[in-house]
Amino acid sequence: MKPLALALATALGVGYIPMAPGTFGSAVGLLLWAALPDAAPVQGATIVVLFVAGSWAGGVAERHFGRTDPGEIVVDEVMGMLLTLFLTGVGWKGALVGFFLFRLSDIVKPPPARRLERLHGGIGVMADDAMAAIYANLALRLCLWVVAR
Questions:
Q1: What is the pLDDT of residue 149?
Q2: Pseudo-torsion of CA 132, 137, 138, 141, nearest 10°?
Q3: Which of the two ends of the chain, N or C, has the fewest CB atoms closer than 10 A to its terminal CB?
Q4: Backbone angles phi, psi at 49, to 5 degrees
């Protein structure tokens, strides 16, 4: 099961990219978003499955790499991008804005995202990015509202 967990945690090896693996993981999330049907139940279920499976895989990967939330784990960024774009109804331009908002939020980690990072194991790996994605989703909605005015 360890190879499966590492494949999931690293988004099929994307996490091994030496520069900015989180950004590349977010790009995988953007591509997955584009590949999914524009149906809230499918996207919502995918987010939940990635959170649960990513929590398991993240815990396995932390033990494998011997440190907390190593950069090689990018499944959290994949899930974060899906959550950032969830129910926004954006096209590619909006999705790219969401991408940058999520990267910013994931790097800055506004409260309580930083605290969620301290949760044990893979849950902490996934929870801080989920919180960052919620902030990015709200910021994207604000941007859409401002542009529509």
A1: 85
A2: 160
A3: C
A4: -60, -45
- Give residue-wise pLDDT tens across range 85-94: 999 999 999 9
pLDDT digits (tens, 9 = 90+) for 23-40: 999 999 999 999 999 999
Token look-up 């542009």 returns 147
pLDDT band at 118 (very low <50, low <70, confident <90, very high): confident
The predicted model scores a pTM of: 0.95
3-class SS string, the chain:
CHHHHHHHHCCCCHHHCCCCHHHHHHHHHHHHHHHCCCCHHHHHHHHHHHHHHHHHHHHHHHHHHCCCCCCCCCHHHHHHHHHHHCCCCCCHHHHHHHHHHHHHHHHHCCCCHHHHCCCCHHHHHHHHHHHHHHHHHHHHHHHHHHHHC
